[in-house]
Write a structure and sequence with these properties.
The protein is of the alpha/beta class and 347 residues long. It contains 15 helices and 13 strands.
Length: 347
């Protein structure tokens, strides 16, 4: 008999004797710490007969089996399955530190979904960077709120909102290099200027046209591919003049000022290579559990009040353009198609 077996047998002998449990409260603590399967194993051992040489212990086995059976029933009644929600370093969708921790608009959306549709599940946030996300998206047992990516491996809910096209963010001091505010720029043309340095997150799911452009500049001195725990380039990189422009969304400069005390001295330009809004919804692993979660989420999203509550979370952080509001009403509330709103295709 190995040491593990001896320990298990000793523990079993101790806790199968009710007098011991009464005498040593720590044993009850041990019992309460056992998992459902471990308690079940103790019940099985109690009636298996390997201690049957001692009639007293055998009798205690059956007594204690009754107690353990009650514990099994109570454990099964309150046991909850856990959903691992992948979260990303992308403000203001997710906020992981500081005064507004877990108050990002997707943080709040996940909490609302659990309160209204998934009360019997435990919620666990699972932070990932983009490279880690690419691995975890192929595995079972997780969900996230985002674009319809890895569609061969995942299930996707009804869309819950739409998100802006990406564009270029610069510091105002370099405006002369890019053009008048409100211009729609050509990223391809700007990339051709080696005097302007671009900073991007390596392997991030930018729009399809942008993704087709960037690999041609891997290794170029004026394109900086960053490995980061976040999914956006911190605008301090612009302030410190390490880069001249980055690819992001119009909400970022406003939010960086509020959360990170970075003065909003930035301009956002739309680009020719990304003119589409993207659907956003819940994505879960393609398995039975994932299907159950998505079915419940879809039921919730059939309620217009739930959709408007999610929109209210977004409005806490983002000023929506008139076009955004119009497209949201058409594609989300009225569920009509519009060529300006698409599903992200990645990878």
């Amino acid at each position: 008999m190995n040491n593990t077996s001896r320990i298990r047998r000793t523990l079993l002998c101790l806790i199968l004797d009710p007098e011991n449990v009464k005498k040593y409260p720590v044993l009850l603590f041990v019992i309460n710490k056992l998992t459902f399967l471990e308690r079940k194993a103790f019940v099985a051992n109690a009636v298996s007969g390997f201690l049957m040489k001692n009639d007293r212990i055998m009798l205690n086995c059956f007594k204690f089996s009754a107690v353990l059976c009650l514990l099994l029933i109570s454990t099964a009644a309150v046991a909850k399955q856990q959903i691992d929600w992948m979260t990303f370093g992308q403000i203001p969708a997710y906020i992981s530190t500081g005064e507004y921790k877990n108050k990002g608009f997707i943080d709040q959306t996940i909490q609302m979904i659990h309160e209204k549709a998934l009360k019997d599940y435990d919620l666990e946030f699972f932070p990932v960077n983009h490279k880690r996300f690419n691995i975890m998206a192929l595995k079972k047992g997780n969900c996230y709120i985002g674009w319809k990516t890895f569609s061969d491996h995942r299930l996707f809910s009804k869309p819950m909102f739409i998100w802006y096209p990406s564009g270029i963010i610069i510091q105002k001091r370099t405006q002369a290099e890019f053009g008048p505010e409100g211009s729609i720029l050509s990223l391809k043309k700007i990339l051709g200027n080696p005097d302007l340095t671009l900073g991007v997150i390596d392997e991030f799911a930018y729009s399809p046209e942008i993704q087709r452009l960037l690999p041609d500049y891997r290794g170029a001195d004026h394109v900086y591919f960053m490995s980061s725990s976040a999914m956006q380039v911190h605008l301090k990189m612009l302030v410190g003049r390490r880069i001249d422009y980055t690819i992001g969304w119009p909400s970022q400069p406003i939010v960086e000022e509020k959360l990170n005390q970075v003065k909003n001295d930035f301009l956002f330009y739309n680009v020719e290579e990304d003119q589409k809004y993207l659907y956003v919804g819940v994505s879960c692993s393609n398995c039975e559990e994932g299907k159950r979660v998505i079915d419940r989420v879809n039921t919730l999203l059939s309620d217009k009040d739930a959709l408007l509550e999610i929109l209210s979370f977004i409005k806490q952080w983002v000023v929506l353009s008139d076009q955004h509001k119009t497209l949201y009403r058409e594609t989300i509330l009225l569920e009509k198609k519009n060529p300006k709103v698409i599903h992200m295709k990645y990878p």
